[in-house]
Amino acid sequence: MTETLGPTFADVQAAEAVIRRHLSPTPLVRSYALERELRLGNGRRVWLKDFGWTPVGSFKVLGALNWMHQHAAEIGDRPVTAHSSGNFASGIAFAGQQYGKRVIIVMPETAPKVKFALTRSFGAEIRTYDIATDHLTGARDALARQIATEEGAIQASPYDDAHVIAGNGVGGLEVAHALQLGGRTVSHFVSAVSGGGLMAGLALAIASQFPRAEIVGVEPDGADDFRQSLLAAQRTRMERPVSICEGLLSYEVGQLNWPILQRHVKHAVAVPDTRTRAAMGWLYRHHGLRVEPSGAITVAAALDRQINFDVAGAEDGRADGDGKGDVVLVISGRNVDEDKFAEYIEA
Prior knowledge:
Layout (H helix, E strand, L loop, with lengths): L8 H12 L7 E3 L1 H7 L7 E5 L9 H16 L4 E4 L3 H13 L3 E6 L4 H9 L3 E5 L4 H4 L1 H13 L2 E2 L6 H20 L4 E7 L4 H13 L4 E7 L4 H8 L24 H8 E7 L1 H15 L5 H11 L22 E6 L6 H9 L1
Parallel strand pairs: 2-10, 3-4, 3-6, 4-5, 7-8, 7-10, 8-9
Antiparallel strand pairs: 1-2
Helix pairs in contact: 1-8, 3-4, 3-8, 4-5, 8-9, 9-11, 12-13, 12-14
């Protein structure tokens, strides 16, 4: 793999063997409730790919494990450092525990308590910064660089890294294996976009296995740098992204992610936080899931009818049909504090 050129589908396939040494696939759950709500008809199905079932409660552990495996020899006895809003923190901490590496994480002071607790539970050390002023001070990146310099640490990117992207793409292979086993195909694949590490990896897998699928990105309307980038046909930076979806507040998509996203993701939608809160409540009532805002945003886009799931052609989602296919919505994580979850769904 040449990291400067980004990963390929072959790299995603190679990463699958690494991930399977540590994790079982997360479930792909059929949502009968969403099928009724969206009224797709013609035998089409709606599936939730729920990464909340990983040991860290999000997809981030996939890319983290592949990164740690690929860099283990280089790391040696040195520590690993990374900045994270919380989910990559616990993901790289879990990976560090698996490979016997010391991990030092830079996290915002306001990250959910559950994400602090998960990260520490896997043995990582945490240093914090003020995210409210980070767009002015650059404290997050400065602190990570300081740790790398003073501790001799190897720095991991939570999203702009070829090994991280390839590892995340294994989640897309899990979707493909499950649906193909049942003779199903995909018309629409929907995932949140932040720095792009998840969507880039998933897009490599889904585009290879379901080339006719429409891959749709979803962002908060106060942090829609990817949607703006698509419109401008170039990476666009947001100086101060704002949303309750604290896992989706990257300033811009990564350099390695951007070409993959441009190639495979032609459409992105922006969702107000009010609709994301409503989707959190909907998932709790209909599926018993306590999902973090960043995880619920794809369901919010679907419930808010921001995505047109109608496709001319086939009669159903079977692979031997003419191609209409099923809908897959990614739930990227479930790490939300109980008090904040109650506040969001009551609002």
